[in-house]
C-alpha cells in the first residue's frame, strides 16, 4: 500500500518523515497507519493536562471494548482533556482493548507534550484534544492508502467501486453502528469487498455527509487501483479484491 495525506488537510503535513517511511514500507504490525500531532498547543511536564490525558486514555481503553466506541473528558478549564476511541465494527472486544491501549500509548509517544493528537491503526482510531470536538465532522484529518497494482479495466472497475461504496453508505448511516461491510460480484468469478464506518459521535445525517465526502475523494488517490482507502477523523472507507473483514 502507498500512503498520501489528503491535500485538504494541512495539519497532516506535521507527521514526521520517519513515521511516513515506516508506514509506506510496512515495517511492523504494531506501527500505526498514520498519526498527526498539533505543535501549536503544548503542555509541560508539571501541567495538569498531562495527568488528565493519562486518565482519559485509561478510561477510553476501559469503556470502548464492549461497544467498540467511547468518548469522554477529564479535568476542567484549560487542563481539560477530551478524547474518543473507535474500533472497527467487525473486530472482537479483546482486539478492541488491545488496539485502544496501544493507540493511547503510541499517540503520547509520537506527540509528547502536544495538546492535540490523532492516531489510526488498522483496527482502531483514537483522538484527543484540549478542545471539545465531539459531534462534528472532522474534515481536517484525512489520508489515502492504495494498492500499487492497477486493474486492466479502470473505468469500469472505478464505477463498480463507487457503486459498492454508495450502497454501503446507504446501509451504514441508518445503522446504529454507523458501519457496513459488503461484497459484490464483478466480472467472471471475481469479488469486490468494501467497508465503510463513521465515528459514533456523529448523527446518521452527518455520517452520510462524511461518507459522501470521502467517497468523492476516491478519484484523487485510487483510480484504477486494485485496493484503496480514504481514512479520516470521522469516517473511513476501504475496498479490496480480497476479503479483509470478518463477516
From TrEMBL:
<feature type="signal peptide">
    <location>
        <begin position="1"/>
        <end position="29"/>
    </location>
</feature>
<dbReference type="GO" id="GO:0005576">
    <property type="term" value="C:extracellular region"/>
</dbReference>
<dbReference type="Pfam" id="PF01657">
    <property type="entry name" value="Stress-antifung"/>
</dbReference>
<keyword id="KW-0964">Secreted</keyword>
<protein>
    <recommendedName>
        <fullName>Gnk2-homologous domain-containing protein</fullName>
    </recommendedName>
</protein>
<dbReference type="InterPro" id="IPR050581">
    <property type="entry name" value="CRR_secretory_protein"/>
</dbReference>
<comment type="similarity">
    <text>Belongs to the cysteine-rich repeat secretory protein family.</text>
</comment>
<keyword id="KW-0677">Repeat</keyword>
<dbReference type="InterPro" id="IPR038408">
    <property type="entry name" value="GNK2_sf"/>
</dbReference>
<dbReference type="InterPro" id="IPR002902">
    <property type="entry name" value="GNK2"/>
</dbReference>
<keyword id="KW-0732">Signal</keyword>
<feature type="domain" description="Gnk2-homologous">
    <location>
        <begin position="31"/>
        <end position="133"/>
    </location>
</feature>
<feature type="domain" description="Gnk2-homologous">
    <location>
        <begin position="139"/>
        <end position="244"/>
    </location>
</feature>
Amino acid at each position: 500500500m502507498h500512503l498520501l495525506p489528503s491535500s485538504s488537510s494541512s495539519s497532516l503535513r506535521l507527521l514526521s518523515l520517519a513515521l511516513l517511511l515506516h508506514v509506506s514500507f510496512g515495517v511492523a504490525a504494531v506501527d500505526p497507519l498514520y498519526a498527526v500531532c498539533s505543535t501549536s498547543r503544548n503542555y509541560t511536564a508539571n501541567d495538569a493536562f498531562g495527568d488528565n490525558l493519562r486518565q482519559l486514555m485509561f478510561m477510553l481503553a476501559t469503556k470502548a471494548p464492549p461497544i467498540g466506541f467511547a468518548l469522554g473528558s477529564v479535568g476542567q478549564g484549560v487542563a481539560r482533556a477530551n478524547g474518543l476511541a473507535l474500533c472497527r465494527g467487525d473486530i472482537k472486544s479483546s482486539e478492541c482493548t488491545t488496539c485502544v491501549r496501544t493507540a493511547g500509548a503510541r499517540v503520547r509517544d509520537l506527540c509528547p507534550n502536544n495538546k492535540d493528537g490523532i492516531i489510526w491503526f488498522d483496527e482502531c482510531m483514537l483522538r484527543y484534544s484540549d478542545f471539545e470536538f465531539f459531534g462534528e465532522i472532522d474534515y481536517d484529518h484525512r489520508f489515502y492508502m492504495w494498492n500499487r497494482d492497477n486493474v486492466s479495466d479502470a473505468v469500469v472497475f472505478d464505477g463498480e467501486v463507487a457503486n459498492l461504496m454508495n450502497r454501503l453508505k446507504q446501509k451504514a448511516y441508518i445503522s446504529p453502528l454507523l458501519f457496513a461491510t459488503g461484497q459484490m460480484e464483478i466480472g467472471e468469478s471475481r469479488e469486490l469487498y468494501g467497508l465503510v464506518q463513521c465515528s459514533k459521535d456523529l448523527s446518521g445525517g452527518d455520517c452520510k455527509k462524511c461518507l459522501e465526502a470521502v467517497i468523492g475523494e476516491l478519484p484523487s488517490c485510487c483510480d484504477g487501483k486494485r485496493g484503496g482507502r480514504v481514512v479520516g477523523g470521522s469516517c473511513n472507507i476501504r475496498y479490496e479484491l480480497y476479503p479483509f473483514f470478518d463477516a
